[in-house]
Design goal:
Order of helices and strands: HHHHHHHHHHHHHHHHHHH
Distance between the termini: 24 Å
Radius of gyration: 20 Å
InterPro entries: DUF7729 (IPR056146)
Bound molecules: 2-acetamido-2-deoxy-beta-D-glucopyranose
Strand content: under 5%
Number of helices: 19
Helix content: 40-55%
Shape: globular
Low-confidence stretches: 1-113, 335-358
Protein name: DUF7729 domain-containing protein
Keywords: Signal
Number of strands: 0
Mean pLDDT: 71
Organism: Lasiosphaeria hispida
């Protein structure tokens, strides 16, 4: 119980022993019951967040392909291209590349220059945006306005950094700077930020903002939308640390040149399935990450519910049949009547609040 609970209660620091691959079934069930109680009061607010989405077009904008030191994985890339191609629109190029940086491990005595943190969507909004009847192009203005919103900056979502940020890819080359990025994205109140991102995703897809571009499949808008929806699961796994080293799991994955596969898992909440050739390191980080993802599948509207099952089965093929639990947790269906129920009910359960963002 303590093992599972410590995982559930903290997005940042998990101290479960790596040796235990079998979680007690009863404990897990008990936790889920608790989660079920909590989530039904909070889930309604974001339950319809993802409805406008029909197809996902992954488009690696130029920043993803720039920057020295990135290793391109052509087989995986080809698979992803095939999976993500939008047949209706031959003009859309569907390239998606996950690259792994070279490690520039700073010695502990090196002074770190106070460089600004990477920003999301800093590659320029050169995309083809639509005009409305008045001849205005509202979407870039909307994007720029949320990017400068102090609340957005405070939330500093890892999910949006993953979806396209030139400066983030540069930061990933250094263990020091990626750690600073993760410190910043794990610092804010995830419950607040999840609500904020959920609201923002709804605003994004309004016709007066980026709704028309979203409907036309504009890749910047669609990627941003998906990242807003997937804020919570990516917050949770981005803040996990390897219990043996106290290093962020994500920093381990992105700086491990000998095995780039572990990076792919961070794209599962963004509806990007694992390439078939993925051979993960069977680490406790991977196990914790998949446990978080499994819990997040309770909301079937999260893209992770679509990508988890096959990813878990791929993991177990390599790591052993019980390494992660391949079964999606039961769906938590929210009745419309719960929509207006106050969140105050859960606020008294302070330690459990950390759990909520995953499931929204
Ligand atoms: C996720 O991707 C699948 C195809 O892999 C697609 O059918 C589904 O609609 C996508 N879900 C979202 C929310 O975009
Ligand atoms: C821009 O988008 C419009 C509407 O989606 C499309 O008709 C046009 O061909 C696009 N132009 C370019 C250069 O992609
Ligand atoms: C986090 O934000 C939520 C929602 O805004 C709020 O109810 C809660 O009190 C906050 N928690 C902390 C520790 O500030
Ligand atoms: C969404 O739009 C509403 C109405 O314009 C605004 O009040 C709210 O602050 C916006 N939410 C976010 C997260 O930007
Ligand atoms: C990097 O990947 C290799 C191969 O999977 C693994 O043995 C090693 O432990 C990893 N290193 C770190 C620091 O995670
Ligand atoms: C796997 O997860 C499912 C769904 O939550 C649960 O019913 C089952 O007991 C779990 N299996 C194990 C071995 O923990």
């Amino acid at each position: 119980m303590a093992l599972t609970a410590s995982l559930l209660l903290s997005g940042r620091r998990v101290q479960s022993p790596t040796s235990s691959h079998h979680r007690p079934t009863t404990s897990w069930t008990a936790i889920l019951v608790v989660l079920a109680c909590l989530v039904c009061h909070t889930m309604a607010a974001t339950a319809d967040a993802i409805e406008p989405m029909e197809t996902l077009v992954m488009d690696s904008r130029t920043p993803l392909q720039e920057g020295g030191g990135w290793v391109m994985l052509s087989n995986d890339d080809m698979e992803l291209r095939k999976m993500k191609r939008a047949p209706a629109d031959p003009q859309v190029t569907t390239t998606f590349q996950i690259a792994v940086s070279t490690v520039t491990q700073a010695s502990t005595t090196t002074t770190v220059p106070a460089s600004p943190l990477p920003s999301p969507l800093d590659g320029g909004l050169s995309s083809n945006f639509t005009s409305n009847e008045e001849g205005e192009t509202p979407c870039p203005g909307f994007i720029n306005s949320f990017l400068t919103d102090p609340l957005f900056k405070q939330c500093y979502p890892l999910s949006l950094l993953l979806q396209g940020s030139r400066s983030f890819f540069n930061a990933e080359k250094s263990l020091v700077s990626i750690t600073q990025v993760l410190d910043a994205s794990c610092a804010p109140n995830a419950t607040f930020c999840n609500n904020y991102m959920s609201d923002l995703s709804k605003n994004l897809t309004k016709p007066e903002n980026c709704g028309n571009d979203f409907a036309l499949g504009n890749s910047i808008v669609r990627d941003a939308y998906m990242a807003m929806v997937a804020y919570a699961p990516l917050y949770s796994v981005g803040c996990l640390k390897d219990p043996a080293t106290s290093m962020y799991c994500y920093a381990n994955a992105i700086t491990n040149l000998s095995n780039p596969s572990n990076v792919y898992f961070y794209y599962l909440p963004l509806n990007i399935s694992l390439p078939g050739s993925t051979v993960p390191s069977c680490s406790s980080c991977l196990q914790q990450t998949m446990n978080v993802f499994q819990a997040a599948t309770a909301n079937r509207k999260q893209p992770i519910a679509n990508t988890y099952g096959s990813a878990a089965s791929q993991v177990n093929t390599i790591c052993g049949p019980a390494f992660v639990n391949q079964t999606l947790v039961s769906e938590l269906v929210v009745g419309a009547g719960l929509r207006s129920r106050p969140l105050a009910w859960t606020a008294s359960m302070v330690p459990l609040l950390a759990v909520l963002p995953w499931l929204l």
